[in-house]
Write a structure and sequence with these properties.
The chain has about 270 residues and is mainly alpha-helical. The chain has 2 domains: about 5-115, Helix Hairpins, CATH 1.10.287; about 145-265, Serine Threonine Protein Phosphatase 5, Tetratricopeptide repeat. It has helices at about 5-10, 15-45, 55-110, 135-155, 160-175, 180-195, 195-210, 215-230, 235-245, 250-265. Helix 2 (about 15-45) packs antiparallel against helix 3 (about 55-110). The model is unreliable at about 1-20, about 50-60 and about 125-140 (pLDDT under 50).
Amino acid sequence: MRALALVLVTLIGPNMALAQDRAQSLADIRQDLNVLYVEIQRLKQELSTTGSPTGTASAGSVLDRVGALETQLQRLTGATETLELRIDQIVADGTRRIADLEFRLVELEGGDISQLGETTTLGGDIALPAPQPAQPAAELAVGERADFDAATRAFDDGRYQEAADMLGRFSETYPNSPLAAQALLIRGKSYDELQDHRASARAYLEGFTNFGTSDAAPEMLTLLGMSLTKLGQTDAGCQTLGQVSIRFPQSEFAAQSAQIMSELACQ
């Protein structure tokens, strides 16, 4: 699965919000189409009844209603097709940029570019997590909290490699935990302390991809931009930092990212 967060950062912060608004409008239009279709069918049945004629004025009124509804139906159908085309364009553009950014990350880390597969289309091919053995809710919650607290204690004590390893296992064991976003954030910070900025960038990348609406998202986005600049990817880092104020204008990290961009002389 290709890394998605950076494209959310550099590409479709605004575009993805647009796609969501379009999708909502599309749902409303489809509902209107269904209502109009039912109404047209009802009126056509009324036109084909075998009762006695009720006069030209009455028949003409029904025909006018049918014509008006069919006109509106054609208009809504055209709007639906336009919105679907726009959403398809956003998805296609986002997918292309994901492929480009994944290529750059692999190239930066000295990986084998030939092993890159086809980029997964945005919004599709989402793998469902494997079923986990049933556990009592209380025991599972205690286990999550105990593992998380042990990892954060290691971080606070300056045992950064141990903290990173523990938090990596935590993410694998509890992928849907309410603490998952914080786990990735602290894991990234652990790698930063170890001066392993490639690993920290990947942790922030994963965190923002999977938990882009969490409380930790603004900080992860800011730290991702900083990690990229430390890796020599100044342009990508500046673009990432620029998205913080766009996506999280009320966050304290909006001002922080703006200050960092000023220091970096971002264009």
